[in-house]
Each structure stands twice: as C-alpha cells, then as structure tokens.
Specification:
10 strands, two-stranded antiparallel sheet, globular
Length: 301
C-alpha cells in the first residue's frame, strides 16, 4: 500500500512540475534553466567530481583548468535545455517541434530509405538527444529505441504515450534484442545510444581511454545488412538545436581490415563518438562514470 501511495504522489508531483513548466513564459523559463544549470554546477558535488575526474583523465594537462570548468558548466546547461525538450515535446505539434532544429546532411537518411535499407541510428548522450529522435522519427518514420524502464509505472505509461505520439517505440533493455528484431520486421528503424558505461562488452578505446562498449549495434547491422547512421545534436541556445547526420557505415560495402568484424565495427562507432566529443566537448554528459571499469580509482579521489 505504501508503494502505491508513493507512486501516485510522485505522479502528482510529476504532473504539477510539467504543468508549471509549460505555463511559464518562454523568456522566464530560459532564465530559470540557465540558473538551474549554474546551481547544478555549484552544488551538485558528486557529479561535479565525476566530471572533473573524466576531464582530467581524457585531457590531462593539454587544456587549462578554467577550460575544463567551462566544459562542465556548458555540459550542465546543455543537459537542462535537453531535459526541457523532454517535457515540452510531449505536448507540442509536429510543426512546432520541427521548427526548433535544423538538420544537416538529411540526404544521407533520404538515400537510405530510397535504397530500402534497414537503418540503425547511432547516437550518444550528447547535446539534445531528447529532440534528436522525435525530430528524425517525425520527419522520416517510426523508430524503436532501447530505454530503461522507470520505477514508477504511472510515469512510465505517460512517457510511453508521449513517445508514441512522436512515432517512437520504447524497448526495454531486458528484451531489447527481440524488440529490435521485431522493429525491423515492422519496417521501423532502430536507435541505440552507445556511450554509456556497461559492466561487460567489447573492450575499445573511447576518448583515447580503455572502456567497455556495447556490440549490439554491430551485431544487428551485420545480421541484417543494415546501414549505421551516426547522429549528433548540438545546442545553439534555448529551444534551438542543430542536428548533424554523419557519414554512414554501410556493412555491405565496408572494407573490414580484420576477421573480427563485430569488434572492428564497434571500435569504429566509438571512434566516431570520440571525434564528435573532441571536436565539441561542451555538449557531452561528462557527469557519468564512463571509465570505471578500467579507471575505477579516478572516482575515489
């Protein structure tokens, strides 16, 4: 009974929070979100420590301490703007959602559809991932995406309904493999975020550091002859994004250098994510323990 009451109370808080966000004038909301990012940067000591450890590991002394702090603050700002997208995109029209972003190289996706290819969108916790997939789904067609189920079943249900409105199907991690196979059979595209820490997987270099990475994208692409299309979204300001579609990896024509195609393909994807982060590090989620499998000690300092 206590669990039920707690779930409904959290649902009430969630609905109240969303209502207040949506009725607040946009110019006030932008200032509030910037303040929220500043507050998180100043007060969120636990994750601030993780971000600093990651930046020290990756960059060492190649950039200044001030630049590292700037990256962390900008990462928080990008994160809160991204979370606002999660809230607002549940309620607005297709036209309004599409108006908040411009897309570069969309002809890559158009050609994949013209060639009747199965598509895997490969992305990361980078910039505006909460606008990336709704935008791509509304513009090009349904997407199935792997996501962790929320603890509160009522909020999970609202989340699923909001996602389906934007032509996104949620797949639970525990049954993701079957879900992705089913998605391809239903002529949906699949989206996978590959930059999170996992306890096991394929050892790769990520941001020039040893880490484990998921090989699910590689195995799926090889099994179905799918084309992997990397996508990253950078923030230009409040409700203003640029979605960049990168050169695809076509497993049908790719010149593999080794016999272990799964490992090679997994490394290539992590190289693509790493390059994007090195090019514009301010938009990546530095606040998670990406390297704890091989560099556990950096998070204990």
């Amino acid at each position: 009974m206590y669990r039920v009451i707690k779930d409904y109370f959290r649902l009430f808080l969630y609905n109240t929070f969303i209502f207040l966000f949506l009725i607040t004038p946009k110019f006030i909301m932008e200032k509030f979100l910037r303040f929220l990012a500043f507050l998180a940067y100043k007060l969120n000591k636990k994750h601030l420590k993780v971000a600093r450890a990651n930046l020290d590991l990756v960059y060492k002394d190649s950039i200044s301490k001030d630049r590292k702090e700037e990256i962390i603050y900008n990462s928080y700002k990008s994160l809160v703007f991204n979370m606002y997208e999660f809230i607002e995109n549940q309620t607005i029209s297709k036209e309004e959602l599409l108006s908040k972003a411009n897309i570069l190289n969309k002809e890559i996706i158009e050609k994949a559809f013209q060639d009747n290819r199965k598509i895997i969108y490969m992305t990361a916790h980078y910039g505006g991932w909460e606008i990336t997939l709704p935008y791509i789904a509304l513009m090009f067609g349904d997407i199935a995406v792997v996501n962790r189920r929320m603890d509160n079943p009522h909020i999970q249900k609202k989340y699923e309904i909001a996602r389906s409105k934007n032509r996104i199907t949620m797949l639970e991690k525990e049954t993701a493999a079957k879900g992705m196979l089913k998605a391809f059979k239903e002529n949906k595209s699949v989206a996978i975020v590959i930059d999170q820490h996992i306890g096991s997987g394929i050892e790769v270099e990520f941001l020039a550091q040893k880490a484990y990475a998921t090989d699910s994208t590689s195995r799926l692409a090889l099994k179905f002859g799918a084309i992997i299309i990397p996508i990253f979204t950078v923030n230009n300001g409040f409700r203003d994004w640029t979605i960049k579609v990168c050169e695809p990896i076509d497993v049908k024509t790719f010149d593999f250098k080794t016999d272990d195609k799964v490992k090679e393909l997994t490394q290539i994807q992590n190289d693509i994510v790493s390059k994007q982060i090195f090019d514009k590090p301010d938009f990546w989620l530095w606040q998670h323990k990406r390297f704890k499998k091989f560099h556990k000690n950096i998070y204990k300092k």
